[in-house]
From TrEMBL:
GO terms for molecular function: histidine ammonia-lyase activity. It catalyses: L-histidine = trans-urocanate + NH4(+). PROSITE patterns: PAL_HISTIDASE. It comes from the Bacteria. It is found in: Cytoplasm. The lineage of its organism: Bacteria, Bacillati, Actinomycetota, Actinomycetes, Mycobacteriales. Keywords: Histidine metabolism, Lyase. It comes from Corynebacterium pyruviciproducens ATCC BAA-1742. Pfam families: Lyase_aromatic (PF00221). Its main location: cytoplasm. This is Histidine ammonia-lyase.
Amino acid sequence: METVKVGVGALSIEDVVNVARYDAPIEITDEALVTMGETRKRVEELASNPTPVYGISTGFGALAKRHIPAEMRATLQKSLVRSHAAGSGPEVEREVIRALNLLRISTLCTGRTGIRPEVAQCYAKLLNAGITPIVHEYGSLGCSGDLAPLAHSALVLLGEGRARTKDGTEITGAEACKAAGFEPIELKEKEGLALINGTDGMLGQLCLAIDDIRKLVTTADIATALSLEGLTGTDTVFAADLQELRPHPGQAVAAANVLALVKDSEILARAAEDFAQNQVQDAYSVRCSPQVAGGVRDTLSHAITVANNELAAAVDNPVVALDGRVTSNGNFHGAPLAYVLDFLAIVTADLASISERRTDRFLDPARNRGLHAFLADDPGVDSGHMIAQYTQAAIVSEMKRNAVPASVDSIPSSAMQEDHVSMGWSAARKLRRNVDGLTRVLAIEILTAARAIDMREGKPGVGTGAVVSLLRENVEGPGPDRFLAPDIENTVQLVQSGEIVTAARGAVDKLG
């Protein structure tokens, strides 16, 4: 994996994903080291000044009015990290913490935090060694940044707290520092605050979700095309000129994808005359799929814009401005991220909802256009995919609950000094659950639609045929009832890995 350069400029979403998921190594640029060194001098000047400066020679939050004498400032920074490492609950996933740590390093490298270069270098060593601090589910309000998650990570740099090696072994913070090749850090003025005050957890999870949803929205088009064939619908509603009448860019991409996937479908060709005479229209879950999947795409485009803006940010408080002044600000507030995290939770829930509705149509002989009830081999003896749809329904119901926005909630904290918070971390956590749910719902639709296609006469389209062929390498075709959970899980793995999309792209000239 190519090394990711971390400097004064912005990382890309792909950089975050490569480091978080695929353990790409990082390297801090010389320019960043010089910039950090220069701004550190300004912090040291202010530290020696008798005038109190927030974050350098004062307490924090509601305790900011207390001036801290020089001999107690190292203790102040260490106490800050220790006290803020107050998370609780299950451990957060490794990839999320790696993303969080990379993004904190990135902000440090802007030089706007006033931290010593060697602190950022030690953080990079920890990341490159594959060592991941243990961080817990609860503790961040998404304002003053992700304080508790970042504090748990920072604690390991001090030789305290707990961490896991690349193979998952739990070790102490001191063991983590040794394994990464550095001595535990003794923090100086401003440094404890600089390590914990950022939106990195929210942003990291947003970047990872964007990477997933990009793939899943194309997977949704594949699932739609499979269902269109399995239900012997009509592809006429996906025509390009109809999409141009309502010029949302995502809608045009979704419709074009479906048309490309079902190209040369014998199943649809055989059914066309009967459809025109007897069916007239498909249900909304089929006919309106480009409008829904297109809306997801357009929402995702907005989320990408927000993520890129945040990747270019230096989030800390106080911050060392370009003119050298150290000043308080509100850039740590997670609202911009919280809004799009919530928005993505909404659209993933709706994309799963329409997928479940298409699956349900296959199971009802009154609506599946000539197939057995529940696609069962021998209805009554066999139940077919009856309970697979139950699983979808359970997941979709939970996803709808997760679509309730977190960003409209706020619980004041820090003795009312922090009286409005974003809850962006909570928005990110429920979005991760929705991404997983959408993966599973689409997998069940693909599994069900492929079974229906196998029950029809004629060959499927060029793209849908490639997907069914891939699926049959991993999952048996129609037959008497068998243990269904492994079939579902095998299909989930094909969706998660991107193999479904890869198979379709290999057969279709252009797939958006």
